[in-house]
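Bumping with the actual sequence this time:
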Amino acid sequence: MIAAGLAGTVLPVLPGPLLVVAGVAVWAVPRADAVGWWVLGIAVLVTAAGQVAKYLLPGRRLRAAGVPSRTLLAGLVLGVIGFFVVPVVGLFLGFVLGVWLAELARLPDSATAWRSARGALAAVGWSILIELAAGLVATAAWIGGLVLG
């Protein structure tokens, strides 16, 4: 379950962070001891902090680059459509296409639009990395609990 959660942070088909915490909870709750509860608490806190950070930090970069929210919304809409047209990779392809088309409509030429779209894509990449790092720290806490317990 934890491995599926980590995979779900990279391939956004599964609710990655939720699966990681659920996997730790499946291990911790039946134990009903201090180690299990501490590990579960750490996993929940780290995952929650990762969820907050994955929106705050890339969002700051997007605002600094001047990328409007409607550009990301266009990417999200085309990403969802792409997911159903071309399973799994269509999500990424549709998102890239949506961001680029939104920036092309907003900016004067394709080179400027691609530069801006690349900045938006980099911010999304950072968001995925932040979420993955939080999942890995929660997994490390679980592994520490296995060793201690």
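The tokens above came from a reply further down the thread. The mean pLDDT is 88.
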